[in-house]
Design a protein that fits this description.
This protein is an alpha+beta fold. The protein has helices spanning 3-12, 21-28, 48-60, 115-124, 141-146, 154-157, 193-196, 232-244, 256-265, 294-302, and strands spanning 41-43, 65-68, 87-90, 97-101, 106-110, 127-128, 164-170, 176-179, 205-212, 214-215, 219-227, 248-255, 279-287. The strands form 4 sheets. A 5-stranded antiparallel beta sheet has the order 4-5-9-7-8. It has a 3-stranded parallel beta sheet with strand order 1-3-2, sandwiched between helices. Strand 7 and strand 8 form a beta hairpin. The chain is globular and about 70 Å long.
């Protein structure tokens, strides 16, 4: 047996370092099936300590590592090439929510937590974790942070970078950098989390993160607006930002082509407006205050 694989199996157990091509296939093929790679090994550590041990062993054997989350990316970044030299290190087993602090509006979660599960955990604590994207039922928070995911709610809550308070990261030599402090007003030293967020695993492997939570919305207003000209979009956005302030969550520009494509592949998809303009906008706002009339504010913006 390859001594590297034997060492990996000693760390995580044979079950979590499969050698059969059929078992490895989901980890070396991208979500769309367009990219197919080959790995020297696929390993699924279950703890941060195991991630450290795997990284140290890979370094001893001069084996490159491809960190992998939910493997939902569309650019092939988590798929190995065909050389068969690298280890695919998948973090799906690091899936614990370590802590939720509703009073501090924060949670600490491991990198393998599925995004939708974090949204649910926050909701059960009467809080909102606002990162939301189409792959949220499969993607993992470690991958969201490593790619600085944006999603639907960037206007109000920012990208994944803006939702991260602290990180736990395994460095290329196996050492651990851990700062899961959920303190907002912290101006001490270098802010290393911003270096790792968006680095796509090239500087280190994210194993856990402290994340921002928000009060849960109690009311929501949504509007679909047909534009007579594309140039109106930024004017309308400025009007909505002024009238809705921090309540504006999404402002999505929709081309006619995109809507027609959706209708083509989703038969029966209803369009709420009379006729189809070249450009339309989907606007969403919400509020956590029952004292704020979100619908009236939205209607005022669109008068």
């Amino acid at each position: 047996m390859d001594p590297l694989i034997a060492g990996l199996q000693a760390i995580v157990g044979p079950r979590y370092c499969p050698t059969e091509p059929e078992a490895q296939a989901p980890f070396v093929t991208d979500w769309r099936g367009l990219y197919h790679g080959k790995a020297r090994a696929v390993v699924l550590p279950g703890t941060t300590a195991e991630v450290q041990a795997v990284v140290r062993l890979a370094r001893q054997h001069h084996a490159p590592i491809v960190p992998q989350g939910g493997n939902t990316g569309l650019a092939g970044g988590a798929t190995r090439d065909g050389s068969g030299k690298a280890i695919v290190l998948n973090l799906k087993r690091l899936a614990r929510v370590r802590a939720i602090d509703p009073l501090n509006n924060s949670m600490v979660a491991e990198a393998g937590c599925i995004l939708a599960n974090l949204q649910q955990a926050a909701s059960e604590a009467d809080r909102l974790f606002p990162l939301s994207l189409s792959a949220e039922g499969t993607c993992q928070i470690g991958g969201n942070l490593a790619t600085n995911a944006g999603g639907l709610n960037v206007l109000r809550f920012g990208t994944a970078r803006d939702l991260c308070l602290g990180l736990e990261v395994v460095l290329p030599d196996g050492e651990l950098v851990s700062n899961l402090n959920a303190l907002r007003k912290d101006n001490t030293g270098y802010d290393l989390r911003h270096l790792f967020v968006g680095s796509e695993g090239t500087l280190g492997i994210i194993t856990a993160a402290a994340l921002k939570l928000f009060p849960k919305p109690v009311a929501r207003a949504t509007a679909m607006v047909a534009l007579s000209a594309l140039e109106i979009a930024p004017v309308l956005l400025a009007r909505c930002r002024a009238g809705l302030a921090d309540q504006l969550v999404s402002f999505e520009l929709l081309p006619r082509f995109g809507i027609e494509l959706a209708q083509k592949f989703s038969p029966g998809l209803a369009w709420p407006l009379e006729g189809l303009a070249d450009w339309s906008v989907l606007i969403e706002a919400n509020t956590s205050s029952a004292a704020f009339d979100i619908r009236a504010a939205m209607e005022q913006c669109l008068v």
